[in-house]
Amino acid sequence: MLLEKHAPLRTKSIILTNDCPWYTDELYEAKHKKRKLELNWRKSKLCIDHQLYREQCSTVNKLLKEAKVTYYSNKIASDGRDHKSLYKITKHFLGASNEEVLPSSTSSKQLAQDFSNFFINKVEGIRNDIKTQNSLSNMNMNVLTPFSPLATNMMDFVPVS
Fold first, then answer.
1. Can you give 23-85 as a three-state secondary structure string?
2. Which residues are CB-neighbours of 114 under 8 A, at least 6 positions away?
3. Closest by Cα among 72, 54, 65 to 27
4. Given this model, what pLDDT does residue 107 score?
5. 85 contacts 79 by C-beta, under 8 angstroms
6. Which residues of 33-52 are buried (b: 16+ CB within 10 A; e: fewer)?
7. Residue 32: its pLDDT value, please?
8. Averaged pLDDT for residues 68-91
């Protein structure tokens, strides 16, 4: 009586959501079998039980990969012309987030100034690289092809038939 007064029984309803649409009954059964084999191996510590467990792990991984490939292949094939859906799938694969990432700054004026300085420095760096490349190529041209006057005078011409 005292226990029910201070800690009464409560009913909870649990809602299961299907976060993994590729999760099949076959995959569920394979994972269940894997957990049983792992428990057997941990109790017995036998090599054969460990081998059976590792083989089941491999089977589960293979089934999981096949299920994902099948699911996404079908999804892409069925949504082939729906660019919004394809974009969502691609975004999911790439792990893109919806958050905008901006540099930390105390004020928006400071942030704008930081962006301005970044691009000014970027342009100056590109200009310096171009100047360096031009001076190196001019120097290489002088080294590789020194100017030398023609050894023969072009005074004698022979007719060609």
1. CCHHHHHHHHHHHHHHHHHHHHCCHHHHHHHHHHHHHHHHHHHHHHHHHHHHHHHHCCCCHHH
2. 103, 105
3. 65
4. 84
5. yes
6. ebeebbeebeeeeeeebbeb
7. 96
8. 87
Amino acid at residue number 29: E
Q: What is the pLDDT of residues 18-77, one digit of tens each?
A: 678 888 899 999 999 999 999 999 999 999 999 999 999 999 999 999 999 999 889 888
Eight-state DSSP code of residue 151: S
Q: What is the pLDDT of residues 129-155, one digit of tens each?
A: 998 888 777 665 555 555 555 555 666
Look-up of token digits 């428990």: 39
Q: Between the CA of residue 54 and those of 33, 34, 67, 159, what are the distances in Å?
A: 12, 9, 20, 88
* pTM for this entry: 0.49
Give domain limits for the chain. 21-94, 108-145
Residue listed under structure tokens 């999760």:
23
